[in-house]
Amino acid sequence: MYSCQVAWFTHHKRVENQHYRVIESDTGRRQVLMLDDSGNVPKVRLTAPWLQWIDYKLCGNEPFKETRHACVCTPYIFNKYTGIFGLTGSVGGKAELQYLAKTYKALKFDVPRFLDTCHGDARKAVVNHGVELLPSAAAQIQRVCELAGQYYRKVPVLIITTGAAQIKQVLAELREGVGAKAGIPADEVQRLSQFDEKNRSLRKDWQRIIEDATRRLGGASDSRCRVTVTDKFGGRGHDFQVVDKESNANGGMLVIATSIPDEREWIQWKGRTARQDRPGQYFVILDEKSEPFSLPKHKKLASKFQALASAVSGSKFQAQMAMEELLLSVSDEGIGEKLKNFEGEQATGEKLNELTELYYKRHPRDFDDPWPREECLETDSKLRRILSDYTEAKPKEVAALAKAELDVELE
User: Is the pTM of this model over 0.85?
Assistant: First the structure.
């Protein structure tokens, strides 16, 4: 009853499109999803009692009580193995590498890309055309759309925005403002995202949109390409194949980013260009009023950023790369802070996982058995209480509880 009262009370404080979003799947089912701190739908769905209440209130989905009867902690499981081998396009920046080495005793080996091992022409480089800092969000969006207007006749354009709100603003400016003045046909500006403007799933359209993004339109006198507007969803995991000779002759697909994320994500974003030994290019257009520039701890970041253009000796390219590296280091710093806070959480998680494993060895059962079991009702209930109420406890507290409540000795 208490948890129901908390859910009812706290749901009043939640704001649509800030804390949650009502989406519609490709089967027509409506559901409320919790958003992350950036206002985006996270890869791993989040949950909370208030979310269940709103989901029932707005979509009619029957609420259910979520209860823990087991705990799985990734470091606890992975470190049971003598070794794990994996391949990835990126393991992130310095902070993530340090975290992986400390938590999993991981070693990193750089494997050369195939084209780098071949004789003859090297793999095509991705060209950085500029990292620009604008005084406002409006100026940022205008500049992004100006660049799209300059390039859409030459190459396919992919704009990676910060999220749903900015997608909407950029689409409007491309179709009705700067983009329209530049001659971009409104119906050749397309959206690539998990959900459309009415929060309906676009799953059925993703492949078509991706294929259309790189196709050349028109004839000899009005040759042009589409402009595709996306967010983090479209910045990774999708293969934009530019086979058009004219586009490749003009430098390949153009990516315009309105933020610089952490290094792992950034490598993926740049990876939308220069695919399969074809050229690629990008711009980064930032808003001085948004994060990280707007954060108190980075109040001098904008002046450092602007100073780099003249402070770095040598070519303009070196200056642009220095500005990019500065922003990546700031993102890496933020990742490091999050991982540091996560360490304590994981240490507790390892103890809870160990408790779960030892408890079920003592009280074995089949996977499909009802939970809690009638013959283990008291101890199952104690386990659930520990797993639910002590997720923020110190590892020593968990070990003491395990001994006192369940007579389980943890290492």
Answer: no
